[in-house]
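Q: My collaborator sent me two sequences in one message, no labels, and asked for predicted structures for both. Can we handle them in order? The first one she listed is below.
A: Yes, handling them in the order given. First sequence, followed by its structure tokens:
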Amino acid sequence: MLKHLPKMLVGVLLALTFNACAHEHSEAAASAPVATEAGKNYFLIDPPQPTASGDKIEVLEIFSYACIHCAHFQPYADEIKSKLPAYAQFGYMPAIFNDQWEAFARAFYTAQAMGVQEKTQQAMFDAIHRDRRTFRSFGDIATFYGEHGVDVEKFSQIAYSFEIESKLARSKEMVPKLGVDGTPSLIVNGKYRITGASAGGYPQAVALVEYLVKKEHEAMTAAKAKK
């Protein structure tokens, strides 16, 4: 039997989405010069937070499927992934600002555990923001994944497993420590935070990630050379 989340909203409410999301969507020209001033275009995370990427530099997008700005940013997230060097790794961390966002975070981690997150990432954004699909319960979300070849009952069981609960707890703990209060936000190696607004637009955010990844790599290389 599929479980329902407490206080699950009746459908995806755009008003809630806009309140929870940072209003950062910008169409600044990609050719504009990229500013790289700390404290203005990107922010230092103090203290730096641990990553989950091993020896690789981690680029993390803090997002939610319920956030329309994250839907707008998804093509840029794909661009970042395609441009990252071998010494860097891209990942997602869902923000949980309310019950609705927790439901989608649970779905994200479950899809990830079942190996279908990448192929359903854009489809979920499309369902919510393009098709205006209504998700009244977690069962409705599980049905969506069933339409993409996932065993619905297994999906629902894994969704409430210890593994997923642990990941949700970590997200709730980490997002505030990273200083994130709106989505999408980008975190480079647990040290630097970027938003579309701070970067001057989404194309500039992509370029700024490239700059900070290179900066971090050079710093790590120099530190190793001194040992």
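Q: And the one she listed second?
A: Here it is, processed independently of the first:
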Amino acid sequence: MSTKTLYRPVGQAELDLIQATHWKRFPPRLDWQPIFYPVLTEEYAVFIAQQWNTKDPNSGYVGYVLQFEIDENYIESFPVQNVGGPESLEYWIPAEELETFNDQISGGIHVIHEFRPEQETMR
């Protein structure tokens, strides 16, 4: 199986839910979240985690960047969405498709960056 590397910026609450799955699955979306959006580049995920999550009380004022591998044939069935500049690329996975998406993850979900207000990258 060929895989594609994707990234996901998250706050503390979402990270805790992922950890509870032994780093294997993303949690269901909340009622007001119709899509799940993994991003295509580490740089874009870092930007979101550092600039948004660290300023958001719902994220616990912390941002993490997660990295994972997903079946390439599966993820390529979704069009890439450009949500801003040329680096702002993500997939939009409908909330009702998230369980199937999780089944396509190869290996685990890994924390590769952690950001807190006014701090540089920590490992």
